[in-house]
Design goal:
Layout: H1 2-12, E1 33-36, E2 43-46, E3 50-55, H2 59-62, H3 67-70, H4 76-79, H5 82-94, E4 98-104, H6 119-126, E5 132-134, E6 140-142, E7 164-168, H7 179-186, E8 190-196, H8 198-211, E9 215-224, H9 235-247, E10 249-251, H10 253-267
Parallel strand pairs: 3-4, 3-8, 4-7, 8-9, 9-10
Antiparallel strand pairs: 1-2, 5-6
Helix pairs in contact: 5-10, 8-9
Length: about 270
C-alpha cells in the first residue's frame, strides 16, 4: 500500500491537486449514487447515506477577535478555504445531502474540559479557554465556550435549520458525543469532511469515523492547518498522505461539486 502511495505521489508530481488530472477516472452513476474521483482510487457514494461534515469552522478559529486571532495565529489560512466549503455546502443542499456541523465548545463551568492536570485542560487553558472577551459587536463572549459568539459558525457558512450541529469537547467529534448515534439514525455510511485544522480536530474526527466503519473522504482544498504551514511540506500534506494510505480517501471541492452537478443532469 505504501508503494502504491509513493508511486501515486511520483506520478502526480507530489500531493498537490490540479483538477481531475490527479485522480483516477471516475464515472457518474445515475440515480442516488455517484462515483467520486479520489485518491487512492474512485469511491462510490450513495447520496442518501452520505453527509457533508464541517469541523470547527467557527469564530474562535477563523474570525478577527477569535481565539486564534488573539493568539497571533494567521487566520487567513482558514479564511481561504471558506469559499470552497461554501460551494460544497450549496451543491450538497441542492442534492439533498445532509449537512452536519461539529463545533469545539466547553460547558460554561468548563467541567467537560478535563482535570486541571490533563493534557486537554492544559492545552486549552494555555490558549484562554473560558476567558471572558468582547465579541466584535461589543457583547460579552467567552473563548471556546458553548453558545457564545466565539463558538458560532462563521457567517459565510452559517447552518440552516435543517442542518445538524454537534458540540465536542475533545479534538474528535465522536468522543463522548451523540454524533455516532445521530449519524446512524440517518443511515449514514460515508462522510465528506471539510474544516479545520487538518491534522488535529479534522484528522482526529476522521480517524474515529473510520474506526466506526464510516467511509471518510477529505476534500483537500476545504481544510486548513496552521502547524507546519511555513515548512516546505506541511502537516496538511502529511495528513493527506496518511488518509490516502490508511484511513480513507481524499478529493477536492471541484470534483465533488462537478460530480453532483453531472449526476443531477443525468438524473433529470
Amino acid at each position: 500500500m505504501k508503494q502504491g502511495l509513493a508511486a501515486g505521489i511520483a506520478a502526480s508530481g507530489g500531493l498537490g491537486f490540479n483538477g481531475g488530472k490527479a485522480f483516477a477516472d471516475a464515472t457518474n452513476i445515475s440515480g442516488s449514487k455517484i462515483t467520486l474521483a479520489a485518491k487512492p482510487s474512485p469511491i462510490t457514494l450513495e447520496l442518501a447515506k452520505t453527509v457533508v461534515m464541517v469541523v470547527d469552522m467557527q469564530n474562535d478559529f477563523g474570525s478577527k477577535g477569535g481565539m486564534f486571532d488573539r493568539a497571533g495565529i494567521d487566520i487567513s489560512i482558514f479564511q481561504r478555504v471558506v469559499p470552497s466549503i461554501s460551494k460544497v455546502l450549496a451543491a450538497a443542499r441542492s442534492a439533498d445531502v445532509k449537512i452536519v456541523y461539529v463545533k469545539m465548545g466547553f460547558l460554561p463551568d468548563l467541567s467537560d474540559m478535563g482535570a486541571p492536570d490533563s493534557p486537554n485542560w492544559v492545552k486549552h487553558h494555555e490558549v484562554g479557554a473560558g476567558k471572558v472577551v468582547r465579541a466584535p459587536n461589543g457583547a460579552e463572549s467567552r473563548i471556546l465556550v458553548r453558545d457564545t459568539w466565539n463558538t458560532e459558525i462563521l457567517d459565510e457558512l452559517r447552518p440552516q435549520p435543517s442542518d445538524i450541529t454537534v458540540y465536542k469537547h475533545r479534538y474528535s467529534g465522536f468522543f463522548q458525543t451523540d454524533l455516532d448515534d445521530r449519524l446512524k439514525r440517518l443511515g449514514t455510511r460515508s462522510i465528506i469532511f471539510t474544516g479545520c485544522t487538518t491534522s488535529v480536530c479534522l484528522e482526529s474526527t476522521l480517524r474515529d469515523a473510520m474506526f466506526l466503519d464510516y467511509s471518510p473522504v477529505l476534500l483537500a482544498d476545504c481544510s486548513a492547518e496552521r502547524i507546519g504551514c511555513n515548512l516546505p511540506r506541511s502537516n496538511h500534506e502529511a495528513t493527506l498522505a496518511v488518509i490516502e494510505d490508511s484511513f480513507g480517501w481524499t478529493s477536492t471541492s471541484e470534483e465533488f461539486v462537478k460530480t453532483l452537478q453531472v449526476t443531477a443532469k443525468v438524473s433529470g
